[in-house]
Amino acid sequence: MRRILAILLENEPGSLSRIVGLFSQRAFNIESLTVAPTEDPSLSRITIATVGDDRVLEQIIKQVNKLIDVIKITDLTERKHVERELLLIKLLAMNDKSRTEVKRITDIFRGSIIDIGKQVYTVQVTGDADKLNAFIDAMSNETEIIEAVRSGCVGIARGEKALRI
Amino acid sequence: MTKELYTGAEMVVKALSALKVKYIFGYPGGSVLDIYDAIFNQNEIEHILVRHEQAATHMADGYTRATGEVGVVLATSGPGATNCVTGIATAYMDSIPMVVLSGQVATNMIGDDAFQETDIVGCSRPIVKHSFNCRKLEDIPNIIAKAFYIANTGRPGPVVVELPKDMLIPQNKGEFHIETDVKMRSYNPTVKGHPKQIKKAVKTIVQAERLVVYTGGGIVLADASEQLTELVERLNAPITNTLMGLGGISGTHPNFIGMLGMHGSLEANRSMANADVILALGARFDDRVTNNVKKFCPNATIIHVDIDPTSISKTINAHIPVVGLVDKVIQQLMDELDAIDFTPNKEALDNWWQQIDQWRSLKSISYEADGDKIKPQQVVEAMYEITNGEAYVCSDVGQHQMFAAQYYPFAKPRQWINSGGLGTMGFGLPAAMGAKIAFPDSHVICITGDGSIQMNIQELSTCLQYNLPVVIVSLNNRSLGMVRQWQDMIYDGRHSSSYMESLPDFVKLAESYGHVGIQINHADELQDKLTEAFSIKKRLVFVDVLVDETEHVYPMQVRHGAVDEMWTRKGVKA
Ligand SMILES: Cc1ncc(C[n+]2csc(CCOP(=O)(O)OP(=O)(O)O)c2C)c(N)n1
Ligand SMILES: [Mg+2]
């Protein structure tokens, strides 16, 4: 089952590599990983999307928690949460037909065209993983995808619940 | 008034002094020469110069296992640091607190493949509890204090501190501040067990009809053996120890049913297999204990007490997990037993002990003496007798290790020192040296084999320099006995590279290092010559005992079988 883990940890040199090392050393899966400092620059927040059964997930959470730099870890997928990912994608848009199609599909997905070249449009879309997958599918039926980059997902719990120290 | 200023190297030594360190085990080299200079200029801490950095880590480790004090290692960057890796891994697997100070090239050269540059923090990442890079020389004292705190609290383990050369040199100085009372927002190990879980555990224990107490290295690390003995006597329960947990209760205690696991006693493994409740204390259901996890104790309710949550329900699901320091939790369990006015269920206990005594009567830990050839088990028994069972026994890895575990009942924790988790050949001699430094007036034995001893034999030179008269007892079977045993049992006796040719003359070898060498060839001279060896108190004695090379370690769990499926003799299953 797919899970999204949010980790709050000390923003120290090497703390990210400890997380990544742990996942590879113990053969845990990483689907995506994002990291950035928080509003408090001494803290980093990592979001990891992973897959595993309950037993594996329990080990992942315990093992991550055991790292000295880690302050908190939570499984966002356990409760209501919001998940977002950013997609930047370059699409072939050579003629009127393909330009119109790109524009139309982008509008449907509430994306925006953020750059245009002679033959390519660059589009930005945000959403959860399913939405971005659907967008990529729709576009690949209409035109050629030149390049695509996804940020990996970030997430936050709904309501009052917060991950903070 | 101007504050006094110190170099980073001086800060390292000052910080270690503040933390009451007595010994540093190490080996010099370019990147740490400033620290060596600072060591030279003081006399609170003694530096022990080994002959190989791996031995420094094992020596620090042996010192720690014998005393409970954190061991300190100092190595230079590059090869010095990488030589420490096996010793760090050994400590990590057995949860031994250790602080390894490693040199590093100057900060402005890091990443340039400078001379003797290796990323030791990176190399050691999967085998340390934590590690530090120093970025500012004023940080050095508090980093070292944190390293000690992390190494020695919670589930203990090794911590690496990397010290770049520019932090140590005389040109750079700073003020010295150290906070020895460390607090960290990201690290607060649990101490006491959750009261609800304690109540649940006791409720289950009280209802048990076939309870087994199964304890591991955690009891030794937490110095919890007195409480453990009290608990076991209170419950009148059978108790088994893991290889790491031996000495957690006296090996001659009437409730002790022997070691469990791969080469454990039949009665210990049978009791586990037939238990209705297993109380696991500071043990981690290692695969060398459980055998096939799918067949492991299917009918038992498992109470698992451990300081490390990741150890709980990792391989075997725990029905009642309790996270906490094992000494504190045992006390909580006893308090709860008092609170409910516990009295043992006499009838159930009688039946259970009757059953266990029947398994005991099969005498699974036994061997057939041969008039002529020396049996390795015999040597361990003689060692036990001569040292009154009071020696520190430091083992290498192989058959000799298992014979020592089976035939030398340890009265106290910390008496038995071996690499259980990693199984590091070459551990025995340096570990014994570490124990001997701590307890110069006690018998310290290095029990070893012809293979293992050659993995750190160079330390005989260190023993002479620092006058460390350990007694080395080598069960010389002219082979990598444990490998050969597996080849006999699993590979139809094809002895691929498990036979040792061209062994040195160990007696002459010992003598050339300035020690005493004794060879024992015949069973009838074993007692006298071994007694003689132990009577020499001021010099190191290397006892080369030529033992029966065909002997196997029994009992032995049948591969992929249940916990109590065992070979008890060649070709005989229990
Ligand atoms: C560093 C290392 N290399 C290889 C092994 C695998 N191994 C385990 S026991 C053993 C044989 C040990 O031989 P010896 O020290 O003579 O002991 P014996 O079994 O003969 O008593 C070997 C090679 C190991 N445990 N450690
Ligand atoms: Mg051998």
UniProtKB/TrEMBL annotation, chain A:
One cellular component (GO) term of this entry: cytosol
EC number: 2.2.1.6
Record keywords: Amino-acid biosynthesis, Branched-chain amino acid biosynthesis, Transferase
Domain (ACT): residue spans on this chain: 4-78
Pfam families, alphabetized: ACT_AHAS_ss, ALS_ss_C
Any one of the GO BP annotations: L-valine biosynthetic process
Family from the record: Belongs to the acetolactate synthase small subunit family.
Quaternary structure and interacting proteins, as annotated: Dimer of large and small chains.
Designated name of the protein: Acetolactate synthase small subunit
Organism: Thalassotalea algicola
Gene: ilvN
UniProtKB/TrEMBL annotation, chain B:
Cofactor: thiamine diphosphate; Mg(2+)
Entry's Gene Ontology molecular function annotations: acetolactate synthase activity; flavin adenine dinucleotide binding; magnesium ion binding; thiamine pyrophosphate binding
EC assignment: 2.2.1.6
Record bears the keyword Ion transport: no
Domain Thiamine pyrophosphate enzyme central, chain residue ranges per copy: 198-333
Keywords associated with the record: Amino-acid biosynthesis, Branched-chain amino acid biosynthesis, FAD, Flavoprotein, Magnesium, Metal-binding, Thiamine pyrophosphate, Transferase
Chemical reaction(s) catalysed: 2 pyruvate + H(+) = (2S)-2-acetolactate + CO2
Swiss-Prot/TrEMBL GO biological process terms: isoleucine biosynthetic process; L-valine biosynthetic process
Record pathway: Amino-acid biosynthesis; L-valine biosynthesis; L-valine from pyruvate: step 1/4; Amino-acid biosynthesis; L-isoleucine biosynthesis; L-isoleucine from 2-oxobutanoate: step 1/4
Cofactor note: Binds 1 thiamine pyrophosphate per subunit. Binds 1 Mg(2+) ion per subunit.
Domain of life: Bacteria
Domain Thiamine pyrophosphate enzyme TPP-binding, chain residue ranges per copy: 396-545
Cellular compartments per GO CC: acetolactate synthase complex
Coiled coil: none
Record-annotated Thiamine pyrophosphate enzyme N-terminal TPP-binding domain positions: 7-120
InterPro entries for the chain: Acetolactate_synth_lsu, AHAS_TPP, DHS-like_NAD/FAD-binding_dom, THDP-binding, Thiamin_PyroP_enz_cen_dom, Thiamin_PyroP_enz_TPP-bd_dom, TPP-bd_CS, TPP_enz
Top class in the EC scheme: transferase
NCBIfam families from the UniProt entry: acolac_lg, PRK06466.1
Family label: Belongs to the TPP enzyme family.
Protein name as it appears in the record: Acetolactate synthase
